[in-house]
Amino acid sequence: MLPRKSIIPEEFGLPGLVSRMPRKPVFRDRVNKARFIAKNGSCNLAHKNIREQGRFLQDVFTTLVDLKWRFTLVIFTTTFVSSWLLFAMTWWLVAFGHGDLYTKRQNGVHCVTDVKSFTSAFLFSIEVQVTIGFGGRMITEQCPIAITVLILQNIVGLIINAVMLGCIFMKTAQSNRRAETLIFSRQAVIAVRNNNLCFMIRIGDLRKSMIIGATVRLQVVRKTTTPEGEVIPIHQIDVHTESAVSSNSLFLLAPLIICHVIDKSSPLYDLSAMELQCSDLEVIVILEGVVETTGITTQARTSYIAEEIQWGHRFVPIVTEEEGVYSVDYSKFGNTVRVATPLCSARELDEKPSILIQTLQKSELSQQNSLRKRNSMRRNNSMRKGTGTSGSLRRNNSGLVSPKVQFFTPNDAGQNLNAVT
């Protein structure tokens, strides 16, 4: 038997409809790439196979400052205890060579009084280097070598104190502690500002003490391949900002919005909204300045990947004037609002300026339509309320209708009843 044909024509069937539907361009999935700079500013970089380890010992002070606190404290304690033990052994040898350990001499003949064992020599070493001086043990003028050892231990002790205490002070007053109060918005936005497509972030300072000479630098890090076939895994491209062009530094009194105009020199010039989500670029933001209270240069860093860049959004204002004082609401620091923004790239906007005009006109029409809908809804609600009240008044007044009144009039043929209302 022949198969029975379907009642629905083939062109209106599901395969036919699917084949005629317009297909969106398919972009490749974004490769999951490790961040170069974490959100807290730490560098995601590991150094391996370093053969010249001796270079770290050439800069001992910086190496000690860069170490973690537990290693610094261990080195601090070990250095002092080792120096005390070393000079305790030296004092014990001096006493042993002079014969103070096994013979009883008159006062003033011993090199060091009351040094009769290694324990007493160790206590005397601590007293000399730390300048405690309990008074039980003291050096005499009978041994010139003991005087030489005393001078040598004082010099070595001062050097150790200067290096170790300076290292502790520098670790305590490190500039990255001040950078903890310099904050960045969690998201970056791309929107139209002054008829240009712009990349924007928001920065702020939580402390009242200002950052002097604050500067902001933006870099785009991405994997690129040169025309010669060379692969650059971390290609850093500098990005200019409006603040860098107009002035040398920022006056970071209140939170500021850093704006980068996406022009022909920008690495974001050829990226549209959909292509941005598929790209593997990373925008690094570096904020530098001098701490007002300490005079130490500090640096705060963060980065934004494609998922953290919102296309068609704008930061909400957070600075208001209240009773003659400007107030900053940090609860809205990272809040954004959706605005009309073309989804095409900045290059397409430069080639076809009408796209921006059409987008703005559509947004204006949509705003007007939404405003009309709101007004019509308000009118309908008010009319419903009005009809509801009039209907209730009618229902309430229905009992007040006057009854029919009957008048009787005599006729020649008889009496007829005429009801007159």
From TrEMBL:
Residues 390-400 have a biased composition (Polar residues). The keyword DNA-binding does not apply. Residues 182-352 form the Inward rectifier potassium channel C-terminal domain. Belongs to the inward rectifier-type potassium channel (TC 1.A.2.1) family. It is a multi-pass membrane protein. Residues 37-174 form the Potassium channel inwardly rectifying transmembrane domain. InterPro entries: Ig_E-set (IPR014756), IRK_C (IPR041647), K_chnl_inward-rec_Kir (IPR016449), K_chnl_inward-rec_Kir6.1 (IPR003278), K_chnl_inward-rec_Kir_cyto (IPR013518), Kir_TM (IPR040445). The keyword Phosphoprotein applies. GO terms for biological process: nervous system development; potassium ion import across plasma membrane; regulation of monoatomic ion transmembrane transport. PANTHER family: ATP-SENSITIVE INWARD RECTIFIER POTASSIUM CHANNEL 8, INWARD RECTIFIER POTASSIUM CHANNEL. It comes from Channa striata (Snakehead murrel). The chain crosses the membrane at residues 71-94, 145-169. Coiled coil: none annotated. GO terms for cellular component: monoatomic ion channel complex; plasma membrane. This is ATP-sensitive inward rectifier potassium channel 8. Residues 366-407 are annotated as: Disordered. It is found in: Membrane. The record marks 161 as: Role in the control of polyamine-mediated channel gating and in the blocking by intracellular magnesium. Keywords: Ion channel, Ion transport, Membrane, Phosphoprotein, Potassium, Potassium transport, Transmembrane, Transmembrane helix, Transport, Voltage-gated channel. It catalyses: K(+)(in) = K(+)(out). GO terms for molecular function: ATP-activated inward rectifier potassium channel activity.
